[in-house]
Design goal:
Blueprint lengths: L14 E9 L2 E9 L4 E4 L8 E5 L4 E3 L4 E3 L3 E6 L2 E2 L6 E3 L5 E3 L8 E9 L2 E12 L3 E4 L17 E3 L11 E2 L2 E2 L16
């Protein structure tokens, strides 16, 4: 294949590499630069969200994505308590923290710690629980004669601190009410 594989790279391996392909009809060259990157973890470009919302009884995945080379090891805390993998909590290899079956007790300050052989850093966000959104009146099946009109209702309860948007789709495709206003009409009841 003409591959060059390198393992356990060091700073001495950095530089310009050249591949030469040759046959009876001629010779061709291609160049590529190999840069070796090493840096302590930093959250300057991608800090953790300061406010994270999670629905009661639902799940949340809090991302922790510092810039670091080599890849850091991750740990998490809630307040002063160090978190470990359990039945409801999981720390993923990419640094994300997942919590399932959210309750009021899960609210609080979460800190992600990232550490590699170059240094360490952390970032903190606050998890707040919201009431889960629920469909309280689902659309019903309707039989309509060709040419007649049909009305379908959908009513939902939701956390009053959040906005609610209804999205309608037909056979898996979202209905664009602006483009299809001659065929569909959206009535919003407050």
């Amino acid at each position: 294949k003409g591959e060059l594989r390198m393992q356990s790279l060091s700073f001495d391996d950095a530089g310009m590499y050249q591949c030469i392909a040759e046959n009876a009809h001629g010779i061709i060259y291609a160049n590529a630069e190999l840069k070796i990157v090493a840096s302590p973890p930093t959250f300057e470009l991608n800090p953790m969200k300061k406010k994270i919302l999670a629905a009661k009884g639902g799940r949340v995945k809090i991302e922790c994505k510092p810039k670091a080379a080599p890849k850091p090891k991750f740990s998490w805390s809630k307040g002063t308590e160090l978190l470990v993998n359990g039945s409801r909590i999981r720390i993923w290899d990419d640094g994300s923290l997942e919590i399932i079956n959210i309750t009021k007790l899960d609210e609080g300050r979460y800190t992600c710690f990232a550490e590699n052989n170059r240094g360490k850093a952390n970032s903190t966000g606050v998890l707040e629980m919201t009431e889960a959104t629920r469909i309280t009146l689902a659309p019903l099946n309707v039989d309509v004669t060709v040419g007649e009109n049909a009305t379908m209702q959908c009513i939902a309860s939701h956390d009053p601190t959040l906005d609610l948007t209804f999205i309608w789709s037909l056979n898996g495709f979202v209905i664009d009410f602006e483009k299809e206003h001659e065929h569909y009409e959206r009535n919003v009841m407050v």
